[in-house]
Design brief:
Helix content: 25-40%
Number of helices: 2
Distance between the termini: 20 Å
Order of helices and strands: HH
Number of strands: 0
Mean pLDDT: 80
Shape: elongated
Largest sheet: none
Length: 62
């Protein structure tokens, strides 16, 4: 990814920028979970990936 962003920056004279690519695993989907997981467990509190990325991660980077 570093080579792609460097090439785009040079080709299009873009200002410096940050590329953020969270890794959510093979089944992450970056959503707020509801119900049970594949093993039948109900996490408490349920993972809130969408909320985290939109309300915490993006403003922190911005």
């Amino acid at each position: 990814m570093q080579r792609v962003s460097d090439a785009a920056t040079q080709k299009y004279s873009l200002p410096p920028f940050i590329v953020v690519m969270p890794e959510g695993g093979s089944q992450g989907w970056y959503t707020d979970w509801y119900g049970t997981d594949l093993d039948g467990h109900t996490p408490d509190p349920p993972p809130a990936w969408e909320t985290f990325h939109l309300r915490e991660l993006i403003p922190w980077i911005w």
